[in-house]
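FORM 7B: Structural annotation worksheet

SECTION A. Query
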Amino acid sequence: MGKEIMKKTNLRAKPGFKIAVAGAADIDCCSPGAVELAKEVGREIARQGCLLVTGATTGIPNYSAEGAKAEGGVSIGFSPAVSEEAHTKSYRLPVEFFDVIVYTGFDYSGRNLLMTRAADGVIIICGRMGTLNEFTIAFEDEKPIGVLEFSGGVADRIDDIITGPQRAIKKIVFERDPQRLVRKLISKIKQEKRKNYK
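SECTION B. Predicted structure
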């Protein structure tokens, strides 16, 4: 039965592989090239036929959404706001590069949980405390995680954070090249998907 399901289940990258990009809304802590790196991650996610998921916010997540849209990709945002009006007026968050925005109404910490849980894998680019929260959620859930090295902020400290008492390190990939990072993460996601049918 399991082998029959595997034959019918196409595990190549396709819409259905949801890759979240977590990163700094305020890019002051990011490396000088982080904006272009985020756009290239978004473009590569689209090129690989995957869906981009973000926190529907400014900065790195928005730049990755811009990149995905430039390649004709699909971008889904999870907003901390309860409605479109609150999203644009109270939180002052963007809408331009999103095909779908889910208005969670759970503020930032609740949004982080829902966004991260909705994804098959998570990419960390730069980041501050909110990004660290998204990383720890993904880490505790043992999701595949990609870390874009030399992008600044939290991303450049994750290797230190996971040193010592830790688990699930094998599900984290570190890479400085956006295209290779996305491809390596997709490979990890495929490994996880295969486990579901064994």
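SECTION C. Observations
The chain is about 45% helix and 15% strand. Residues 178-195 form the longest helix (18 residues).

SECTION D. Sign-off
Analyst initials: ____
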